[in-house]
Amino acid sequence: MVTFNRRTFTTLVAAGAVAASLPGQVQAKGQTQVGNPLGPIRNVRTDLLSIAYHDAGPADGPVILLGHGWPYSPQAFVEVVPRLVRRGYRVLTPYLRGHGGTRFLSSDTLRSGQQAALGSDVIDFLDALDIPRAIFAGYDWGGRAFCVAAALWPDRCAGLVSVNSYLVQNLDPVVAKMPVAPSIEAAQWYFDYFTTERGKTGLALNTKELARVVWTKNSPTWDFTEGDLDRAAELFDNPDYVDVVVHVYRHRRLTEAGDPRYDALEARLRKLPVITVPAVTLDGIDDGNFPANDGTASAKFFAGPRVHHQVPGAGHNLPQERPRAFFNAILEVTRLPRR
User: pTM of the full predicted structure?
Assistant: First the structure.
């Protein structure tokens, strides 16, 4: 186990200007993105979605995908992206389905948030931009999407950075329905809250305040500002937000079926496939959702080179709370050998 030293970040580095559009990309209407550290917002279509994403760095640079969590936003990476751009990387930060400017193309598509859907979105996104391979780096939902994609499509992943290690859900009916330690059950209260209609209504009526509670409990030492929360809450103003969020947890708790189009992938994920690509995994020591550990318990799920770190002063939203540690992990995974 290796730990990073504590760092204090006081300066927001502004970087990135509007780049020339690439094939299949359009600039989002009404967006003024010059000077945004994350890069301009663009949109690209897959078979199911119009995915909004930030695009920063040289168009011909090695590609890094950053994946945000819930109830968070790409703002988690505002201090990570400029560092990567200065290293010559092209950094793409897509908005999750149900968030921000990402939209379903058809009203008939199930607003699924299941893990196979999130992982498939990663590959569909790469296909739409004609990107053969990228480094994946994310946390929470974004980390889960990347773990799924790395496990099922290893040829598309040049390396993985995942907060909380192996995030493919074990949906075996016996395992998924078994309670865990009471302290963890309490921390993951919203997993079960959203399986109820009361929870769905509560999410719709109290979107921002519910996020505040999750942020506070998941990152008890993070001194976030009201502005931080406001910027993330802007993403929740999406017609599919409530349905997608609720489905994530209902599918996870086996109270609602998934989209049949992902049945074959879910069957493969039920076997908990190992991740063979180089990986760096991180735990925030102050994470109120997933207790930090030394990585031993999840080692069996990583068949390639893998390094695990505990990060002092970080909770669940690790990239925003300790951006240098997250940036260092990305650089580290590029140096690991690929078997």
Answer: 0.89
